[in-house]
Specification:
Structural class: alpha/beta
Helix content: 25-40%
Bound molecules: zinc ion
Oligomer: single chain
């Protein structure tokens, strides 16, 4: 597990070189945003303890396997006191409901864990504000740290190589576009996230981007359908 200090309140945890989760400090311990692929539970719990706290809640940007992969194992180890928060539509998809027409791209693994809370835009998770950013998946959300405007953008953007919107293929990380459900909604969400004017951008795949305005503007220009 590679750890990167993003802000005094947020630590990025990276597995397999390109899959990120985040520890977000709150008064009672940590919110873990995303869980990486399977096999990460012990490392994520150890990272929280070495950062000085326990994981109190797990908030998910979306339901894909490289974000919910260690959820069941974490729930098993942390017990029923841990709260699990998943965006409404992705939780319904995991519950077996057909919420959109046609085939959903990306990997949707079978989960034993039922979320405690279904997230809606505008909800608060400790210091984080839930921001709608559908497109990569139907329910995809991002999290804005209201303390310092750090944005956890999930898979709306990737930053491997450079900042890119996941609505189109970018050779450094084509997987993200392959897994994207609705490319025009994804681009619309990417624009809305840019409009939040984040101070720092972190994402599911790729390094931290500080003062990301120019990188986001260039990524949006490149993402326009030609
Ligand atoms: Zn994804």
């Amino acid at each position: 597990m590679q750890t990167t200090t993003v802000t005094p309140d947020i630590t990025q945890l990276t597995r397999l070189r390109f899959v990120n989760a985040f520890l977000v400090r709150e008064d009672d311990g940590f919110t873990l945003v995303d869980t990486t692929t399977s096999g990460g539970a012990d490392g994520l719990i150890a990272a929280a303890r070495s950062a000085g706290g326990e994981i109190r809640r797990i908030a998910l940007t979306h339901g894909h396997g490289d974000h919910v992969g260690s959820l069941d194992a974490l729930k098993q180890r942390l017990g029923n006191t841990v709260e699990v928060l998943m965006p409404e539509l992705d939780a319904r998809i995991h519950a077996g409901e057909k919420v959109v027409e046609g085939k959903l791209p990306g990997q949707w693994p079978k989960l034993k864990t039922t979320p405690t809370t279904r997230l809606a835009p505008g909800d608060r998770v400790g210091s984080l504000e839930v921001v709608a950013s559908p497109g990569h998946t139907p329910g995809h959300v991002s999290f804005l740290d209201t303390r310092d405007r750090t944005l956890i953008a999930g898979d709306a953007y990737t930053t491997i190589g450079r900042t890119a919107v996941t609505n189109h293929f970018y050779w450094r990380f084509p997987l993200a576009a392959m897994a994207t459900w609705d490319k025009s909604k994804d681009l619309e969400s990417a624009r809305a996230l840019r409009a939040l004017d984040p101070a720092i951008l972190v994402v599911g795949h790729g390094p931290v981007v500080r003062a990301p305005g120019p990188a986001l503007d260039r990524a949006l220009t490149e993402a326009e359908p030609s």
